[in-house]
Design brief:
Elements: E1 3-8, H1 13-25, E2 28-38, E3 43-44, H2 51-61, E4 65-70, H3 76-91, E5 97-99, H4 106-117, E6 122-124, H5 132-141, E7 145-152, H6 167-172, E8 186-192, E9 202-210, E10 214-221
Parallel strand pairs: 1-2, 1-5, 2-4, 5-6
Antiparallel strand pairs: 2-3, 7-8, 7-10, 9-10
Length: 222
């Protein structure tokens, strides 16, 4: 009998790869995808993705979606309380594990393990410590399609926002920038690939600069 798990879904490439690894293992039944959404904006927190596109993603993936709603000025206490409420709900339904797409940030892993361990839920990291260059190549070679929707100007030029995540993108990355953006250099939106039942169609809108640091490419559902 498969173990029940939640999957932490950001909408980006690391989530998609981790989901593919988790599915191929065959050990877990994914009860729902869980995504943090800034309710004031109706967008995925940090990534800036419209919830319409998030909803289309999860419909194509074939899983229920549980949104953790936070306000635009939420502090860590608000986030943790909202997240804990959702976790307790699913723990009552037999969920014992949350699956993440983190790769090598030890402090993030320890934070998640501490946060979930306090309520008796385990963490699983299917792509932990895998070579990010190999992961990037596997993502592209497997037929996944993604676009960069958020770029940290302290790491990358704003022209990377809105670009397709492909081999040209990787070859143009400056030295020191992780090819999977694991240090937060960029975030992506995955719109097609082996874990999807159908492609998500969209058009690229304006690129805006916010918080004196981040470039966001607005994606518009078609």
């Amino acid at each position: 009998m498969k173990k029940k798990a939640l999957f932490s879904w950001s909408g980006g490439k690391d989530s998609a790869l981790s989901l593919e690894y988790a599915k191929s293992g065959g050990e877990y039944e994914i009860a729902a995808l869980i995504t943090t959404v800034t309710s004031d904006y109706g967008r995925v927190s940090m990534h800036g993705l419209r919830c319409d596109l998030l909803d289309r993603q999860v419909t194509s993936l074939g899983y229920p979606l549980e949104k953790v709603l936070i306000s635009k000025n939420a502090d860590n206490n608000e986030y943790e309380a909202a997240f804990k409420s959702v976790l307790l709900k699913y723990r009552g339904l037999g969920v014992e594990t949350v699956i993440y797409g983190d790769i090598f940030l030890q402090d993030i892993r320890e934070y998640r393990e501490k946060q979930l361990g306090g309520i008796g839920i385990k963490c699983l990291f299917p792509i932990w410590k895998k070579d990010t260059r190999k992961l990037a190549r596997r993502f592209i070679d497997s037929g996944f399609k993604a676009v960069a929707i958020c770029v940290d100007s302290e790491a990358l030029d704003g022209s990377f926002a809105g670009r397709d995540y492909d081999y040209d993108f990787l070859s143009d990355l400056p030295e020191g920038v992780d090819p999977c953006g694991e240090n937060g250099e960029f975030h992506t939106f995955v719109y097609d690939g082996p874990v999807f039942n159908e492609r998500i169609d969209f058009s690229k809108g304006d690129i805006v600069f916010r918080d004196s640091r981040f470039y966001y490419c607005d994606l518009i559902p078609l």
